[in-house]
Design goal:
Elements (H helix, E strand, L loop, with lengths): L3 H18 L8 E5 L5 H9 L4 E4 L2 H10 L7 E4 L8 H7 L2 E5 L2 H9 L8 E6 L16 H9 L4 E7 L8 H16 L7 E3 L6 H6 L4 E4 L1 H4 L7
Parallel strand pairs: 1-2, 1-8, 2-3, 3-4, 4-5, 5-6, 6-7
Length: about 230
């Protein structure tokens, strides 16, 4: 079985190969390691290997890990799960970036949790690439309205878009749509150039579609521990 260092090296080599295949500079792509259910000690190990971007799906786990590994001041914590308005203050206190803003209410809650004196919080608009309204993400038809609203939130900084490829569709097709949605958001916020897409199984397709941020879990961390 490969070590954590070896798995990280394999994924980074794969990212570099996928980038060069479409004539992109691998240095323009941010690899986020998702450590869901893994212990804080793994983040210490990852940090020692040069990892600076960590992703978490749940607010409680994000807050706990950020507190435990707080001595690594240059770690960037990415909240990639579905946010709840009553947890916005805790999310904001721990996260450097929130990838999952998909409605006005969560944008308002994150904005209200910020201080005018603090640095703005980087946020991305999560887009639903399926026809199921129960899935996380804003409907594509609502994107411009949501982008305009977030752009008016004084403590938030709109960085771009995020999505998860549907399980029943080729990732390349889904990410091509996301690229189009990113273009639409940039007509409202020209600096919103980030595209958060691609996970363990589909990051090459995401890179080909212009992804700037990849959310990689098990390919690096190994299988998730049993969680009760």
């Amino acid at each position: 079985m490969l070590t954590l260092e070896e798995r990280l090296a394999v994924v980074d080599a794969g990212i570099a190969d996928a980038a060069r295949a479409v004539r992109r500079d691998p240095g323009t792509i941010t690899r986020i390691v998702v450590t869901k259910f893994h212990p804080p000690s793994m983040i210490d190990e990852l940090y020692a290997l040069g990892v600076r971007d960590i992703g978490e799906n749940r607010q409680q786990e994000l807050s706990e890990k950020a507190a435990i590994v707080g001595e690594h001041a240059d770690l960037r914590w990415h909240f990639i799960g579905q946010g709840q308005t009553n947890k916005a203050k805790a999310i904001r206190a721990a996260a450097s970036v929130v990838h999952s803003v998909d409605r006005v209410k969560i944008a308002n809650a994150l904005d209200a949790a910020g201080s005018a004196k603090a640095l703005p919080l980087d946020v991305l608009l999560q887009v639903n690439l399926t026809d199921d309204p129960a899935r996380g993400g804003a409907a594509p038809d609502d994107l411009e309205r949501l982008a305009e609203h977030v752009g008016g939130c004084r403590t938030l900084r709109l960085r771009g878009v995020m999505a998860v490829a549907p399980l029943d569709e080729e990732p390349a097709r889904a990410f091509a749509r996301l690229s189009e949605y990113a273009d639409r958001v940039r007509t409202i916020a020209p600096d919103a150039t980030w595209i958060s897409a691609g996970m363990t199984a589909d990051y090459p397709e995401a890179i080909a579609a212009g992804a700037t941020h990849l959310r990689i879990g098990s390919a690096i961390t190994g299988p998730r521990p049993a969680h009760g």
